[in-house]
Each structure stands twice: as C-alpha cells, then as structure tokens.
Amino acid sequence: MFNPNQCLKERYQLQEKLGRTAAGRQTWLATDLQSNEQVTVKLLAFSPEMQWEELKLFEREAQVLQALNHPRIPRYRDYFSLDKEAGLQLPWFGLVQDYIPGDSLQELLDKNKRFSEEQVRAIASQVLDILIYLHELSPPVLHRDIKPSNLIFGEDKQVYLVDFGAVQAQAAVTGVTFTVVGTSGYAPLEQFWGRAVAASDLYALGATLIHLLTGTAPADLPQKEGRVYFRDGISLDSHFIAWIEQMTEIVLEKRFSSAKQAKYSLKYGQIQQSSSTSHPVRGKLSKPSGSLIKLKADRDRLEITLPAPGLRKLTQYSLLPALMIVSFYIGILMTIIGSLLSSIDSGYFDVTLIMFCFLLLASIFWFYQIGERTHVLFDRNRNYLSIKRQLWFMYYGQQQFRLTNLGNAFLMNRGAIYEIRIPSVRSMCKFGGALGEHESTWLLQELLNWLYFK
User: Fold this and answer.
1) Within 13 A of 246's CA, how many CA atoms are on the CB side?
2) Residue 422 and residue 192: Cα distance in Å, rounded?
3) What is the rounded CA–CA span in Å between residue 374 and residue 370?
4) Which residues of the chain have pLDDT under 70?
5) Is the entire prediction scored with pTM above 0.70?
6) Closest C-alpha among 214, 218, 217, 211 to residue 234
7) Looking at residue 318, what is its pLDDT?
8) Which residue, 191, 230, 226, 225, is CA-closest to 208?
9) Which residues are CB-neighbours of 444 under 8 A, at least 6 positions away?
10) Of 156, 254, 357, 395, which one has the greatest count of Cβ atoms within 10 A?
11) What's the pLDDT tens digit per position in 364-375?
C-alpha cells in the first residue's frame, strides 16, 4: 500500500491522504518533484473483484480532463500506471491534477457552517459559469455528480468543480446507458434511467444549493409532489425560492433547459412558465413482445417473476423449433436411462456409457435452466426486498434486504447478458442475470418508476 513520502514514477512524492475513499481507491496530496508544486494524485487499484466499468470511467475522466481548460477546473497533468512495482500486490492507475487549497462545501457543512442567501447566490453563479463552459463544448461534457463534496471553496474565495469520475462526454444518450452514476438526493430521476442531459447537472446544482441553505441533505428533506420541500425554517427572496424550485423540477421539461438560461434567470429574475402537467413524465419503454417476465404492482408492493434462463432462450425460437429442441433432449434423457439400466444388468461399462453420463449431466443442467425461476418482492409496508429462487416445485436461496438500506438500482452487462443490481449496506442485491438488453432496460424502468413514483 502507499505511504507518506513514497515516490511514484520517480516524480510524485506522496504527502498525505485526502478525503474519504472507497476500497481500491485513494486520493493523495503530493509534490511534483519536477515543478516543486503541490498536486492531487487519484489512484485506482485494478483488482479481480473490480468491474471493468470502473476502469473505463477512470480512463474516461483522464481523457476528458485533458481537453478541458477552465480556471475553476483543476488542470490535468498526468496519467500513469503502476504495474505491480514497489511491492504492490495489484496494478494501480494514477491521475494527476492541480491541487486546489481550500475546503469542500461538504467539509464546511460538517463544521456546521450556515450559508447566507448572498453566499449561495454567488456559489450558484460561479458553478453555472463552469457548467456553461462544459455544456457548450463539442461534444458537451456532463459532470453527472455535482454535490457539496465535489465543490471546493478555495483560499482565493472562488468555487472549483472537482471529481470528474462520473463524467459523460456527450449531451444526451440514445437509448439507455448501463452504468448509472450519481448520488442519491442530488441526481435527478432521468439520470437513474441512464438518460442524463445538461439539465441533469442543473438539478444536482439546485439540490446542492438546498443543502447549503438548510444544512440538511436533500434525501433527508420531505417531498411534495416529487419535489424536495425546503421552505420551512429559512427566509429567502421569493424569486430565489422559485428559481431553486425550477432548478429541481422532477419533470425534465419543466426545468431550465441550459445553464445559460438558468444564469440569466438568476441574474434578472425571470422564471419561465411551467406547463400544466401536474405529474412527472414516466418512462416510455414498452414491455418487449414475447417477454416471460411477470410483473404485478400497486402502491405498496411490486412483485416480479423472472423466467428460467433456458426458457428465455427457447422463446428466441419459433414454436416448432422450440418443441423439437425439447423433444430432442427428452429423447436423449430416455436413451441415457435405458443404456444405464442395461449396462448395470450386464455388469459392463464402456466408453459409450461414460459419454452417456456426460450427456446426462448436460441434460440435468438444461432441465435446471428450464425449471429455475426467480421471485422478487418489494414491500413498502414491511420495508423489505425479498429475492427467492424456485426450482420446479422447490424454493431455495431466499435473501432479504431492508428497503431503507438500498442504494440506486442500475444495470450491469456481461456481454449480451444483463442483470439489475442494487447496492445495500452490506452486500449487492442482484437479479435478472438471464435477461437481454431490451427486457432488462424495460424492467429497470418499471422498477425505478415504482421506487420513485409513490
């Protein structure tokens, strides 16, 4: 592991670890021995348990930062790998940027600092200037993780936007992306659907401003009609309240469409009229034809029954080929059983019997693939998520999670196979590993609709 005074690549001498970092990730304050300047070194371990998508996001962050040139975005300096050198057990990747002396807004909140309306307006204006720059690049750059811990209040009294680990170098996504990033309470609903746009960063900024004004994280504040309710206990200009409310509209069409529009409204006090739509726009994807997923939902319960992997594969064929495949395997199984019995009676085991045994195991696996199902139940009244497997008439492997301990649902793909994952406090909840792209996308949308639209 890394230690103070350790030198990486014979250039970056580590000084002290910065912030709270997850397993396999570290951020250090270091000295660039070539320039004798302080820098920030972000490190990512490439471990067997790590998802490839994490490395892709890390590499994307480095690529995007190289192309950015803004005085309040820490400048990119270097990207390197440490291939099991210096006694390391795993390869590590490093990203080097300028160091910004100061405190994050989250650190100031943790010290019980309360921000005035004037201070929050100034912060909003400075961050909007950064977003105008990012969103007007070609292609536009979306940060996708604006929150107090990623905004640094520098010693020069300027606000800096840091941590581009969730960055996306395009304005909108065709279809649905399968790496859902963002932080609960700050990321808008469309981002959890994998459809982040420029206005998604505006929502995150608005939620951040609410946190600064109230001292309470948005996820811990009450909601009214899907919007964070923050008016109680604070005294603000009515226009500023309306402006923040429009920034945090859950309906994308009601939000400001661009950072430039939001900045103009903040400066001159003009709020665009909202449409008459009173309910959030839900996902537009329809259930794929031929899907065997069963879904039953009401306000308090969501029941999902997922088909067996082999059964799903059979539905990819027309009825006659599917029946032929099933008949073929039944015929093989009957032949194996007959040969096994005759071999036992004669006391003679030959190579043919060994081959039959292999076919028997294959057939057992196939029938397992046809007979196994997964039942998923979300229950708000009991505050739990239950997942249990069914093999023909037997149930096994039941898991239970508290709904209040769950994170954000997202899709993970392994080749052509997709599964839904929901992180919990102690483990990762997974289901749907036999689903294809369109089925899993539709199912994730239905799940998010139920979770976020009560």
Assistant:
1) 24
2) 12
3) 12
4) 19-23, 48-53, 84-88, 169-182, 225-226, 270-285, 309-371, 407-408, 413-416, 425-426, 452-454
5) no
6) 214
7) 45
8) 230
9) 176, 193, 409, 410, 411, 420
10) 254
11) 555 555 667 899
Class in CATH terms, 294-311+371-452 = mainly beta
Q: Which fold has domain 102-268?
A: Transferase(Phosphotransferase); domain 1 (1.10.510)
Burial class from Cβ neighbours inside 10 Å (0-12, 13-18, 19+) for residue 307 reads buried
Q: Helices 238-247 and 259-268, interaxial angle, to 10°?
A: 170
pLDDT for res 150:
94
User: Which amino acid is it at 322?
Assistant: A
The SS3 call for residue 388 is strand
* Cα three-residue angle 162-166-171, rounded to 5 degrees: 105
Dig out the tokens for 71 from the structure.
Answer: 């005085």
| Domain range summary for the chain, segments of one domain joined by + | 7-98, 102-268, 294-311+371-452, 321-366
* DSSP string across 28-92: EEEEETTTTEEEEEEEEE--TTS-HHHHHHHHHHHHHHHH---TTSPPEEEEEEE-S-TT-SS-E
Residue 82, both tokens: 């440490």
Q: Determine whether 205 is exposed, middle or buried from the number of CB atoms within 10 Å of its CB (0-12, 13-18, 19+).
A: buried
Look up the CATH superfamily of 7-98: Phosphorylase Kinase; domain 1 (3.30.200.20)
Query: For 250-259, how does the pLDDT look when each residue is reduced to its tens digit (9 = 90+)?
Result: 888 889 989 9
Beta strands in 248-383 (DSSP E): 294-297, 301-306, 372-379
